[in-house]
Amino acid sequence: DAKTTQPPSMDCAEGRAANLPCNHSTISGNEYVYWYRQIHSQGPQYIIHGLKNNETNEMASLIITEDRKSSTLILPHATLRDTAVYYCIVRRPGGATNKLIFGTGTLLAVQP
Amino acid sequence: KAGVTQTPRYLIKTRGQQVTLSCSPISGHRSVSWYQQTPGQGLQFLFEYFSETQRNKGNFPGRFSGRQFSNSRSEMNVSTLELGDSALYLCASSLDSSVPDTQYFGPGTRLTVL
User: Fold this and answer.
1) Contact A102, A2 (CB under 8 A)
2) Is A93 exposed, middle or buried (0-12, 13-18, 19+ CB in 10 A)?
3) Alpha-carbon span A71 to A90, nearest angstrom
C-alpha cells in the first residue's frame, strides 16, 4: 500500500472550513484513499473514501487531484467536537488485503 | 444497527499473566481485524480473521494470538504479559463482500500491565 504524508498539526476556527491535506504520490491505480479520525482515546471513526472522483457525505468532502497524488479532506463547518487526529490511508480494495496502515496523522485543533 | 463492541473496556494485569479480549462485530460483518495503539508506535495492525481463519498477520510476537468463532465474534489473547503490552487494543469489522471494504472500529480495550 502507498505511503501517505500529512502535516502533524493544524488549527481551525470554529465555524470555518477545515481543509486537511494528504500527499500520496506513489498511489497505484486501484488504491483507494480513506480518511478516519480518532478523538482522544476512542476508536477511529470512518469518515469517507474515494478512488478518483470527489466524494461528499454528511460528514465531509474528499477532493482528489486529477493525478491522484494528493487529496484534501474538507470539514465544511468545523465544530469543537471535530478536534481529533485525522488519518489519511491509502489501501487496495478489501478482501485478502484487509489491513489498514496508519501513519501519524494530523492533529486538528478547532479553536473557539 | 449496533456498532462494534469490545469487552472489557478497561483491564489491569501484572507482568507474566495472560489476558483475553473480546470483540463482537457489526451484525453481518464477517471480517474482524485487531490493532494495537501505543504512544510510541501508534496504531499497528495485529491480525485479521475471516471465516474462522487468520487471513493476515502483522509483525508481532507469537505471544499475541487470536481466534474467530462461527458467529464472527473474535477474541485475542496475549500470554506472558510484558510492560510494553500496555496499550489500547482496537477491533474493527467489515463486510468483506464489497469493494472497497470499509472497516468500522470499536471503542477499544485499554490494557494496563503493572
Assistant:
1) no
2) middle
3) 11
pLDDT band at B36 (very low <50, low <70, confident <90, very high): very high
Determine the number of helices (DSSP H) and then strands (DSSP E) in chain B: 0, 11
- Interchain contact, B100 vs A49, CB within 8 Å: yes
Of the candidates A32, A34, A43, which has its C-beta nearest B106's C-beta? A43
**Contact at 8 Å (CB) between B56 and B32?**
no
**Tens-place pLDDT, residues A38-95:** 998 899 999 999 999 899 999 999 999 999 999 999 999 999 999 999 999 998 776 5
Which residue of A36, A95, A101 is in closest CB contact with B101? Answer: A95
Q: Cα separation of B58 and A5, whole Å?
A: 22
